[in-house]
C-alpha cells in the first residue's frame, strides 16, 4: 500500500508544505486571513488524495498478435482489447504497455472512460532483431487529478507472449543419404521401394486375429507369428544443441549461440522437407523428457526459439542422452563449441561404426574470444578424429556452404 506522501506529485508536496508554513505563520503573526489561505493550500492536496481512486479498475485485457509467430526483423501487430467487466464506469487513464526493449519502444495510449460492458481497442507494432520468447504486459494505468497534485499508478496483471523464431536459411535442394547401420539408415529407403503395403512379422499377442497368422513363419519358428502391416520406417535424425553458457563468448545475445540455434533450425527444416523424422536434444528437452518424441517442424522451431545458454549445462549429459539414438543408426547433427576436451570426447564417443554424425563446431575465438584462440584451436579436431564430419564456423561462415561441407554425399 503506497503512502499518501508518495501519491503526491512535486506540485502536491509543495502545496502541502507551503500550506503548513503559511498556517504556522498566520497563527504566529495573528493574521487569520493568512491562516485561512494556508488551510486551503493544505486542504487541496488532502481532498484530491481522498477522491483519488485506489482500486484497480475491473478491466479485462485481451491481446492478439498478427502473425502469431514472427521471424527476426519482421513486423508484427499487437491488437489490445480493453473491456470494462465491472459495474461502475472507469476513469480516464494513460495506459502504458510493458514489453521487452528488443521489441521496440513501450507503447502509450489514452484509455478513455468506459461504461460497464464497454470495449475499447488499440493496436501497436513490434519488431525484434533476435529470436526469443518475449512477454507482453503488464499494462500500467496512470492517472492525475485535474490540478496535477496527485499521481496514481495501477497495474493490470494480464500478460501475453510473443514468439520470434530463429533465422532459417535455405540449405539447398540436395538430399542427405541415410546411414548404413541399423534400421534407421538405408534400410528404410529400401523398404520404401516396395510401397506402403510392406509387412513385418512378429510374435502373436493376445487379442490378435487368427486371420493375420503367418503360417510359413509359424512353422519355421515353432510359435505363432502374425503379419503386422506397417508403413515403412522413416529415416530419423537427432539434433543436438550445446547450450553451455561458459562456452560461448559474450553476454546477453551471444552471436555464437545464435549461429548454432539458427543452424539447427535450418537443418530441421531441411530434413523435415526431405521426409526425415526429427528429434531435438537440448537441456530443456532433456529435463522435460521430450527428447525421445519426434517433433514436427513447427514444434522444433518453437523450442529453438525459447532455448537460452545455461550455466549448469553439461555436454556429457547430452552425450549420454544421445547414445541410445546412435546405437540404432540415427543421423546425428550437432552444433557444439570447441571449449572442453573432455566433453567433446564424450560426445565424439557416441558415434557408432557405420553411422553418420555431423557437427558444426563453433570456434569461440572467432566470436569474440580472441584470448582463447591458442587453447581452443586444437579441440576442433576431437570430433573429426572419431569419424564425425565437422566444419569449424565463425560469425561470417556461410551456413549453406557449412552444411554442404559436412553433409557431403548429398544426392539429388
From TrEMBL:
Entry superkingdom: Bacteria
Pfam families: DUF58
Keyword annotations: Membrane, Transmembrane, Transmembrane helix
Domain DUF58: 201-285
InterPro entries: DUF58 (IPR002881)
Ranges that cross the membrane: 12-31, 37-53
Protein name, entry field: DUF58 domain-containing protein
Organism: Ornithinimicrobium avium
Taxonomic lineage: Bacteria, Bacillati, Actinomycetota, Actinomycetes, Micrococcales
Amino acid at each position: 500500500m503506497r503512502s499518501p506522501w508518495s501519491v503526491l506529485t512535486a506540485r502536491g508536496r509543495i502545496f502541502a508544505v507551503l500550506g503548513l508554513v503559511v498556517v504556522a505563520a498566520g497563527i504566529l503573526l495573528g493574521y487569520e486571513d493568512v491562516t485561512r489561505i494556508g488551510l486551503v493550500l493544505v486542504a487541496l492536496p488532502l481532498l484530491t488524495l481522498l477522491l483519488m481512486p485506489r482500486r484497480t479498475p475491473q478491466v479485462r485485457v485481451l491481446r492478439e498478435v498478427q502473425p502469431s509467430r514472427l521471424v527476426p526483423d519482421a513486423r508484427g501487430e499487437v491488437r489490445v482489447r480493453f473491456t470494462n467487466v465491472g459495474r461502475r464506469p472507469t476513469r480516464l487513464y494513460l495506459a502504458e504497455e510493458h514489453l521487452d526493449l528488443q521489441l521496440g519502444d513501450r507503447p502509450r495510449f489514452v484509455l478513455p472512460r468506459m461504461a460497464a460492458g464497454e470495449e475499447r481497442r488499440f493496436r501497436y507494432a513490434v519488431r525484434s532483431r533476435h529470436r526469443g520468447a518475449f512477454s507482453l504486459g503488464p499494462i500500467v494505468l496512470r492517472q492525475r487529478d485535474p490540478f496535477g497534485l496527485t499521481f496514481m499508478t495501477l497495474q493490470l496483471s494480464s500478460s501475453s507472449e510473443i514468439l520470434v523464431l530463429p533465422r532459417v536459411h535455405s540449405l539447398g535442394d540436395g538430399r542427405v543419404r541415410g546411414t548404413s547401420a541399423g534400421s534407421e539408415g538405408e534400410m528404410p529407403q529400401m523398404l520404401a521401394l516396395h510401397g506402403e503395403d510392406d509387412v513385418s512379422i512378429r510374435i502373436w499377442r493376445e487379442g490378435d486375429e487368427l486371420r493375420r497368422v503367418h503360417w510359413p513363419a509359424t512353422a519355421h519358428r515353432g510359435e505363432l507369428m502374425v503379419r503386422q502391416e506397417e508403413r515403412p520406417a522413416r529415416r530419423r535424425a537427432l539434433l543436438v544443441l550445446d547450450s553451455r553458457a561458459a562456452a560461448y563468448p559474450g553476454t546477453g545475445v551471444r552471436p555464437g549461440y545464435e549461429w548454432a540455434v539458427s543452424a539447427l533450425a535450418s537443418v530441421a527444416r531441411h530434413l523435415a522437407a526431405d521426409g526425415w523424422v526429427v528429434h531435438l536434444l537440448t537441456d530443456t528437452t532433456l529435463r522435460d523428457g521430450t527428447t525421445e518424441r519426434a517433433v514436427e517442424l513447427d514444434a522444433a522451431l518453437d523450442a529453438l526459439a525459447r532455448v537460452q545458454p545455461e550455466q549448469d549445462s553439461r555436454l556429457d549429459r547430452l552425450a549420454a542422452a544421445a547414445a541410445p539414438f546412435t546405437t540404432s543408426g540415427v543421423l546425428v547433427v550437432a552444433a557444439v563449441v570447441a571449449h572442453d576436451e573432455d566433453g567433446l570426447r564424450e560426445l565424439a564417443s557416441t558415434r557408432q561404426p557405420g553411422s553418420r554424425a555431423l557437427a558444426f563446431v563453433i570456434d569461440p575465438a572467432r566470436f569474440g574470444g580472441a584470448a582463447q584462440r591458442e587453447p581452443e584451436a586444437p579441440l576442433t579436431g576431437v570430433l573429426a578424429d572419431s569419424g564425425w564430419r565437422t566444419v569449424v564456423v565463425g560469425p561470417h561462415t556461410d551456413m549453406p556452404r557449412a552444411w554442404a561441407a559436412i553433409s557431403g554425399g548429398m544426392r539429388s
